[in-house]
Amino acid sequence: MSSSNKSLPYTTKDVHYDNAKFRHRSFFKVIYQTFFTSNVKRTSLSCSTGKFLSLLLIFGIAYLMLTHTSPANSVTDRLGKGVKNSKDKLVSYGGSRLGKLLRKPPRLPPRLSPDQKGFNNSSSHESDNLNAGSKWIARQQSVKDAFIHAWSGYTKYAIGYDELMPVSQHGVDGLGGLGATIVDALDTAMIMGVDEVVSEAGSWIEKHLLDRITKKGQVNLFETTIRVLGGLLSAYHLSGGEQGMKLTHTGPKPTVYLETAKNLADRLLSAFTSSPTPIPFSDVILHDSTAHPASGGLSSTSEVSTLQLEFNYLSAVSGDPKYSIEAMKVLEHIKTLPKVEGLVPIYISPQTGEFSGENIRLGSRGDSYYEYLIKVWLQQGTARDNNLTYLYDMYTEAMKGVRHRLVQKSIPNGLVFVGELPYGSDGAFSPKMDHLVCFLSGTLALGATKGITKEKAMKDNLLNFEDLENLKLAEDLAKTCFEMYAVTSTGLAPEIAYFHTKDFSEGGLDGGNKSSEYVKDIIIKPADRHNLLRPETVESLFVLYRITEDPKYREWGWQIFEAFEKYTKVDTGGYSSLDDVTTIPPHRRDKMETFFLGETLKYLYLLFADSSLIPLDKFIFNSEAHPFPIKGTKNDS
Ligand code: DMJ
């Protein structure tokens, strides 16, 4: 695939950007070069008509120079100053009416975000590359605009609350009241270079978060770890902590993020230490550092196994091993439990340490167990091969199990999907796939090449049979996840889809887009038609684009982004989840989930960015898209 990509219209190289093309040249240099370095021009100067026309041209240009006032700051700058939507991009250039008539917009370089600087265009198809590069830079800018619009709604109506209700213009504390949107969004703002948001979010954290942590009540261990602890830790690294990247020069000192993270984690540790087994309780009372099981007593398998990247990284940067030790006990314990070809039930008991029930799926409550097996191993970097190989083995076995037990193809058009075993290994297969399962495509690709491109991995002979199988499944699954969007009237995926198979069919429940080739393959039940602005598909498109360099993943991501813009954007600020993606106009649910800023927009931005921004062989993204450096790598991008 990747070798053939070389001849496609755009590859990662195409986003390389030759800033020299737009280097500033002075007015006099332009005139000099125009009239005294070209033979043709010299000839024209030698006849009197030519001289007259030349003088006219010089006066014309001089007139424009004098009447010209600089355009308002660049789009990037204006966005940084709070411009809220693309309509506001129409700016007045000033000057006289004649000037306006004569003047073309100056050919200025697009303002580059930190990541876009230093591109080096060495391709022979320079202008094609430049066009393709400009196209993706413009699209990246649109995602940044969307982020600023989302943030502006949140700050207007919900600052300090966990989430924004953009339609009713309220805030709501659905995650325990730690201002989750602020912490989840912070590193996205750093990556996008939106300094105003970095500074606003950073100072809110500095002023309020510690106080909230010491006073608030019940929080969910998993949600608080991936969103708040994860967000603080990546902000610590990206703002220069641990000699990290220093993507930003604004906001508080990195140690503010680290100290807040430590205080929070010290309280979260009670979920581990109060449990009679290595499986933590699901809920923590922050103000008194106590913990208890969820009602019903069980923890979700994905929740207890999706804490380790965060706790490991905190141990690494704080120098205190206690966080890592407690979190890793969970995986060491799960290693000893019986499984079905590496697949595990979605519930586990903190009281007994055993799995509970037989329901096996890679959707809700199961998903990130599989994600963290490989990511925690990858996080070890250079220490991978002498440490934690059991995680790699568990992952490899589980993915074989997925391919053997859970993967089927739809009819009539053969979309590859991952179904469920709700009654365990001996029960019937269910052709149900949560949108959440779409994370798997990216994880499979990452696990196969360990973050380098497929082309390089193939050239260096690094892919074994399992890797190739997993990569193939990753690509097939990404297609299916994309078609889950394309098959609906709105172009947005439902929360859950069913697939038409020889054993399962239900008429009249299609997504509404009759022109989709897959309208008969994908079944959407009325109760599953909502869309929560989830990230999993664009997350996988981002990873697959980085690994395969196939531009179709970028085009798919753009199509999804446009649908979000069209149907979920709320004019007054923010984006809203939807009740039904199969009807137009879709009814809005009035909720902007924190992961829309923390994950969805971040992954879209990175999908359109140069691959040197947060490279996948140097960073590992936690389940909420917060990047942590891989051990032993130097992150100087
Ligand atoms: C996020 O909070 C995380 O990605 C989590 O692991 C699963 N679900 C949501 C987004 O859909």
UniProtKB/TrEMBL annotation:
Region feature (Disordered): 99-130
Cofactor(s), names only, from the UniProt record: Ca(2+)
Biased composition (Polar residues): 118-130
Chain segments annotated as coiled-coil in the UniProt record: none
EC numbers for this chain: 3.2.1.-
Disulfide bond residue pairs: 438-481
GO biological process, one term: carbohydrate metabolic process
Top-level enzyme category: hydrolase
Residues that bind Ca(2+): 623
Catalytic activity field: N(4)-(alpha-D-Man-(1->2)-alpha-D-Man-(1->2)-alpha-D-Man-(1->3)-[alpha-D-Man-(1->2)-alpha-D-Man-(1->3)-[alpha-D-Man-(1->2)-alpha-D-Man-(1->6)]-alpha-D-Man-(1->6)]-beta-D-Man-(1->4)-beta-D-GlcNAc-(1->4)-beta-D-GlcNAc)-L-asparaginyl-[protein] (N-glucan mannose isomer 9A1,2,3B1,2,3) + 4 H2O = N(4)-(alpha-D-Man-(1->3)-[alpha-D-Man-(1->3)-[alpha-D-Man-(1->6)]-alpha-D-Man-(1->6)]-beta-D-Man-(1->4)-beta-D-GlcNAc-(1->4)-beta-D-GlcNAc)-L-asparaginyl-[protein] (N-glucan mannose isomer 5A1,2) + 4 beta-D-mannose; N(4)-(alpha-D-Man-(1->2)-alpha-D-Man-(1->2)-alpha-D-Man-(1->3)-[alpha-D-Man-(1->3)-[alpha-D-Man-(1->2)-alpha-D-Man-(1->6)]-alpha-D-Man-(1->6)]-beta-D-Man-(1->4)-beta-D-GlcNAc-(1->4)-beta-D-GlcNAc)-L-asparaginyl-[protein] (N-glucan mannose isomer 8A1,2,3B1,3) + 3 H2O = N(4)-(alpha-D-Man-(1->3)-[alpha-D-Man-(1->3)-[alpha-D-Man-(1->6)]-alpha-D-Man-(1->6)]-beta-D-Man-(1->4)-beta-D-GlcNAc-(1->4)-beta-D-GlcNAc)-L-asparaginyl-[protein] (N-glucan mannose isomer 5A1,2) + 3 beta-D-mannose
GO molecular function: calcium ion binding; mannosyl-oligosaccharide 1,2-alpha-mannosidase activity
Active site annotation, chain numbering: 223 (proton donor), 367, 495 (proton donor), 536
Keywords in alphabetical order: Calcium, Disulfide bond, Glycosidase, Hydrolase, Metal-binding
GO terms under cellular component: endoplasmic reticulum; endosome; membrane; trans-Golgi network
Pathway: Protein modification; protein glycosylation
Entry's family note: Belongs to the glycosyl hydrolase 47 family.
Record protein name field: alpha-1,2-Mannosidase
Organism whose genome encodes this protein: Castanea mollissima (Chinese chestnut)
